[in-house]
Amino acid sequence: MKNISLTKKIKQFPYIFWFGLIITIFIFFVSFISIIWTPYDITVLNIQDKLIPPGNTLHLLGTDHFGRDIASMIMLGAKTSLLVAFTATFLGIVLGVPLGLVAASRAGDPLDDIIMRGNDLIFAFPALVIAILITAILGPSITNAIIAIGIFNIPVFARITRGAALSVFTLDFILAARVCGKNHIQICIEHVLPNIMSILIVQSTIQFSLGILAESGLSYVGLGTQPPMASWGRMLADSQTMISFAPHLALAPGISIIVTVLAINIMGDGLRDYLDPKLRKKSA
User: Fold this and answer.
1) Is 4 contained in some domain?
2) What parts of the chain have a pLDDT lower than 70?
3) What are the pLDDT digits (tens) for 89-102?
4) Does 84 fall in a domain?
5) 36-42: long-range contacts (C-beta < 8 A, 24 or more apart)?
6) What is the structure's pLDDT at 83?
7) Is residue 134 included in any domain, yes or no?
8) Residue among 262, 282, 280 nearest 8 (CA)
């Protein structure tokens, strides 16, 4: 019976979810492999092998203007992008969700206003502006890029959590929990959070994909990952002056960003369709 129920649950996931999941798993696998192995060491310059076009037996995706292997840089760039996006998303969840729960539990109180106005203040500064402020003080680095993107994620999760939690706080079982003597923290953890978890999961996939784009953008303008670490955004920045005679320098990182973000968004859409009962009934 357990196998039958598990099979039914698996079949309830839309095909679009599996498509995005397979591509995402492959990208994570490539990034994990790059930790222990890459075809070439990207810190070693081979000027004699510079600008080799794709399709070469030794360099499948070609080489850049320093003779570095593009495939190796793409693998290491995947590790960098996923690390930054995951850490920044995790930071947004850890700080934003509790703030949203506190604001929802104190709806109408001064504490709710203080939290939400603080979120509005952060929203006034995009991740790029926050990164400029941070790097002006601490200098450009991958850590500062994570902090900048993570700070921008905090009000996103706080707003999503507060909006979803407010509707849960109006339900009868919350009143019953209060009658039983449970405090705000117990109600939020035991009753509210489990009921809004599906929304947070879907939002996490969205912010994760946006984190990859943000990391690439910050690295492109020189505020994110610094050499010798590889980054898709920095690869695009380095290729812009040579795109007319070496387009593969821009195509490889550009396609990598597009495929990764698209796969994660597709997986998020599939999760939304599965976790939302209304959409599940329509698809059924």
Assistant:
1) no
2) 1-12, 276-284
3) 999 999 999 999 99
4) yes
5) 38/69, 38/71, 38/72, 38/75, 38/76, 39/69, 39/71, 39/72, 40/68, 40/69, 40/72, 41/72, 42/68, 42/69, 42/72, 42/73, 42/76, 42/228, 42/230
6) 95
7) yes
8) 280
Output the domain CATH number for residue 228: 1.10.3720.10
* CA 102 – CA 162 distance, rounded (Å): 8
What range does the domain containing 125 cover?
Answer: 62-283
pLDDT of residue 138: 79
- Long-range contacts of residues 25-33, Cβ cutoff 8 Å, at least 24 apart: 27/78, 27/82, 27/259, 27/260, 27/263, 28/82, 30/75, 30/78, 31/75, 31/78, 31/79, 31/82, 31/83, 32/79, 33/75
Measured distance CA(121)–CA(110) in Å, rounded: 16
* pLDDT value for 210: 92
Cα angle: 87, vertex 31, 230; to 5 degrees: 80
Q: Residue 257: what residue type?
A: I
Overall domain count for the chain: 1
Whether the CB-CB separation of 92 and 122 falls below 8 Å is answered with no
For position 133, what pLDDT does the model report?
82
**Which residues, in sequence order, are bridge partners of residue 63?**
69
Closest CA to 201 of 150, 283, 269: 269
Contacts of 10 (CB under 8 A, 6+ apart): none
| pLDDT value, residue 11 | 60
Which residues in the chain belong to E strands, given as ranges?
none
What does the DSSP 8-state code read for residue 44?
S
- Residue 162 inside a domain? The answer is yes
Report yes or no: 227 and 234 within 8 Å, Cβ to Cβ.
yes
What is residue 2's predicted lDDT score, i.e. its pLDDT?
47
